[in-house]
Write a structure and sequence with these properties.
Helix content: 40-55%
Shape: globular
CATH topology of the largest domain: Alpha-Beta Plaits
Distance between the termini: 41 Å
Order of helices and strands: HHHHEHEEHEEEHEEHEEEHH
Radius of gyration: 24 Å
Structural class: alpha+beta
CATH class of the largest domain: Alpha Beta
Number of domains: 3
Strand order of the largest sheet: 2-3-1-5-4-9-10-11
């Protein structure tokens, strides 16, 4: 019987490390407290408090269930290994190898979760896509990016709420705003913030001519109670209404239900046309505006700290983070982490996890 002692010892150490980082004992105690709160018949008298309690209970339960599953699977592998040694049953080796390989993947997934260190990484994300330089090609590229992130969210089982889409002049889109809901949605999507460059044979220009176009992706954390975190003076807002061009039935096509809000001091503009009434669209637009203002405050604080610390070296080429080359060869390459793949079709179909995970590991190594 082949020895698996080293592999199993390494997995046990990874389990102990994970328990320490997640504060396993504290999570167990917190779950007991949360179970009492969740079972309180008066919990939903305060809906905002109830959402926070149930959200935390779900997160704590997920972490504890994951640790329990890993502990159980590791114990099963060790039991199978002990049985094989005792009975000198070499035929069990392939099964033990498969069990250990699956455990390695499970621990890799857990350790990715442990890379989320930001205050709001576990939150939903408000995402924006904007067409940049490149004319019609850039607008088409922006629409391709929108589909890419929608497919990515679908792969992960996240919910998506598209709040506004501005069509391009000839094809594609000028911009899109959406909320992607799921645990760690923002923590993952912040890896995508920046300018994305596409190189391909243009379907809109002269035949055979290669075209370079740019579109940007941005994400900020979204929370239902975000409006309470920042003071918004209605006197500083310009609120415009217009006829919705999005989904929602006949009602939105005959009334000016869509809302565009401009925050005059900052110049931030947000739009929402997804809801059926002007009041609902205004409320959602204000939530998105609040999220953007909170993120702007964080960026200002970071800029002040950077100014004190002195100039820092740039990473990558300006704000461009990734290149998608469709011609003359096929390659997607992240310019920060050097992660790359030749399977461009899979990436454009939402296979982005490897790029996001590589960014999180690169980020952690950059600050450690």
């Amino acid at each position: 019987m082949k020895s698996f002692d080293d592999e199993l010892a390494a997995l046990n150490k990874r389990l102990d490390d994970a328990k320490m980082i997640l504060a396993y004992e504290a999570l167990l105690a917190r779950k007991v407290d949360l179970e009492k709160l969740v079972s309180d018949s008066n919990l939903w008298d305060d809906p905002e408090h109830a959402r926070k309690v149930t959200g935390e209970y779900s997160s704590v339960s997920d972490d504890l269930n994951l640790i329990s599953m890993l502990s159980r699977d590791l114990e099963d592998a060790e039991t199978l290994y002990d049985l094989g040694k005792e009975e000198e049953e070499d035929s069990l080796e392939p099964e033990i190898e498969v069990s250990i390989a699956e455990l390695v993947k499970e621990f890799d997934s857990l350790e990715l979760r442990l890379l989320f260190s930001g205050e709001h990484d576990s939150k939903d994300a408000v995402c924006e896509i904007h067409a940049g330089v490149g004319g019609t090609d850039a607008q088409d590229w922006a629409e391709m990016m929108l589909r890419m992130y929608l497919r990515w969210a679908e792969r992960r089982g996240f919910e998506v709420e598209i709040d506004e889409v501005s069509p391009g002049q000839e094809a594609g889109i000028l911009s899109a705003t959406m909320i992607i809901r799921g645990r760690f949605a923002y923590g993952l999507l912040r890896a995508e913030k920046g300018v994305h460059r596409l190189v391909r044979i243009s379907p809109f220009g002269a035949a055979g001519k290669r075209q370079t176009s740019f579109s940007s992706f941005d994400a900020v954390p979204y929370m239902d109670d975000m409006v309470d975190e920042v003071a918004i003076d209605e006197k500083e807002l310009r609120i415009d209404t217009y006829r919705s061009s999005g989904a929602g039935g006949q009602h939105v096509n005959v009334t000016d239900s869509a809302v565009r809000i401009t925050h005059l001091p900052s110049g931030i503009v947000v739009s929402c046309q997804n809801e059926r009434s002007q009041h609902q669209n205004k409320a959602k637009a204000l939530q998105i505006l609040a999220a953007k203002l909170v993120e702007r405050q964080r960026q200002q604080r970071r800029a002040e700290i950077d100014a004190i610390a002195g100039p820092q070296s740039d990473v990558g080429w300006g704000s461009q983070i990734r290149s998608y080359v469709l011609a003359p060869y096929q390659l997607v390459k992240d310019l920060r982490t050097s992660t790359e793949t030749g399977n461009v079709d899979a990436v454009l179909d939402g296979d982005l996890d490897n790029f996001m995970e590589s960014y999180l590991r690169w980020e952690r190594s950059s600050v450690s």
